[in-house]
């Protein structure tokens, strides 16, 4: 499966709305939508810059929720919000997660929420019918990685590399890590960080169930920000179609994650 990442409101919300069905047409199974944050801890310069630009234009959470609500009925693709717990905590967790569910999101990813502090988030997500995924780094000890995998729902988010997001030339070595996780969870395993080509997608999905591509997509949006919106969307759709062609021919037969949230 291919899981593209886009930054909500970059370069504008109309592009975000237009991109979601375009990504699905291109072969994506799930779309991660990053909610802009002023101090992203794991994002490289490409994604961080896109978030800062969206915030500088005055983007508000209510506008993001309205945009997702508007496009939800146009797509059967899973929509997952990647959001800093700082935003959720400031907004009040119950209210924020209810808004996510009500707008049509299917799941949540909290990149900065430690396992030990995640019980409330996981419980609230479950109550609202949303999946909740925490991140597993390459350096995470095996016993802790197993605990994170068991705590996650929807899918397990495995980082291909340490450090920050951004396209890399070399193919990540994930086989042993994926094999270890398969022993403790039946959830699909999605791998991200540094994946930016069809060849990398093919290599990753030989072992993992999904490849997550973010910086390479956001960079193309940045490069096309001055182009007409039709051209901007077509550029990204074409690139994602190219990425989807790299999906490994032999898949494990894991059902698509997650099922589409009913339009609210």
Question: Can you walk me through this structure?
Answer:
The protein is an alpha/beta fold and 264 residues long. The protein has one domain (2-244): Aldolase class I (TIM Barrel), CATH 3.20.20.70. Helix content is 43%, strand content 14%. It has 11 helices and 9 strands. The chain has helices at 13-25, 45-56, 61-72, 85-91, 93-103, 119-127, 142-151, 175-182, 198-204, 215-223, 229-244; strands spanning 2-7, 30-34, 78-82, 107-109, 131-133, 135-136, 156-159, 189-192, 210-213. A 9-stranded parallel sheet has the order 5-4-3-2-1-9-8-7-6. β6 (135-136), α7 (142-151) and β7 (156-159) form a beta-alpha-beta unit. α4 (85-91) packs across α5 and α5 (93-103) packs parallel to α6 (119-127). The longest helix is centred in the C-terminal third of the chain and has 16 residues, at 229-244. The two termini are 26 Å apart.
Strand content: 5-15%
The CATH class is identified as Alpha Beta
Helix content: 40-55%
The CATH architecture assignment turns out to be: Alpha-Beta Barrel
Structurally, the number of domains stands at 1
Largest sheet: 9 strands, parallel
Number of strands: 9
Distance between the termini: 26 Å
Which geometry do the CA atoms define?
globular
Average pLDDT metric: 89
Would you tell me which CATH topology applies?
A: TIM Barrel
The fourth-level CATH homologous superfamily is Aldolase class I
Helical segment count: 11
- Pattern of helices and strands: EHEHHEHHEHEEHEHEHEHH
Uncertain regions spanning at least 5 consecutive residues? 162-168
Structural class, from helix and strand content? alpha/beta
Radius of gyration from CA coordinates: 17 Å
Strand order of the largest sheet: 5-4-3-2-1-9-8-7-6
């Amino acid at each position: 499966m291919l899981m593209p990442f886009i930054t909500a409101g970059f370069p504008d919300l109309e592009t975000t709305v237009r991109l979601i069905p375009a990504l699905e047409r291109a072969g994506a199974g799930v779309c991660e939508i990053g909610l802009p944050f002023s101090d992203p801890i794991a994002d490289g310069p490409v994604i961080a810059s896109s978030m800062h630009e969206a915030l500088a234009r005055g983007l508000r959470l209510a506008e993001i929720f309205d945009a997702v609500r508007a496009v939800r009925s146009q797509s059967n693709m899973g929509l997952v919000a990647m959001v800093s717990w700082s935003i959720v905590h400031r907004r009040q967790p119950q209210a924020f997660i209810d808004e996510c569910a009500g707008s049509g999101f299917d799941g949540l990813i909290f990149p900065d929420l430690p396992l030990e502090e995640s019980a409330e988030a996981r419980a609230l997500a479950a109550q609202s019918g949303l999946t909740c995924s925490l991140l597993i780094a390459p350096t995470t000890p095996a016993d802790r990685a197993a605990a994170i995998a068991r705590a996650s729902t929807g899918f397990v988010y495995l980082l291909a590399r340490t450090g920050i997001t951004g396209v890399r030339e070399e193919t990540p070595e994930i086989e042993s890590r994926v094999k270890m996780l398969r022993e403790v969870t039946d959830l699909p395993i999605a791998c991200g960080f540094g994946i930016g080509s069809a060849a990398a997608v093919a290599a990753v999905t030989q072992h993992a169930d999904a490849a997550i591509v973010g910086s390479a997509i956001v960079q193309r949006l940045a490069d096309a920000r001055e182009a007409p919106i039709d051209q901007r969307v077509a550029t990204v759709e074409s690139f994602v179609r190219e990425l989807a062609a790299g999906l490994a021919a032999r898949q494990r037969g894991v059902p698509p994650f997650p099922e589409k949230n009913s339009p609210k």
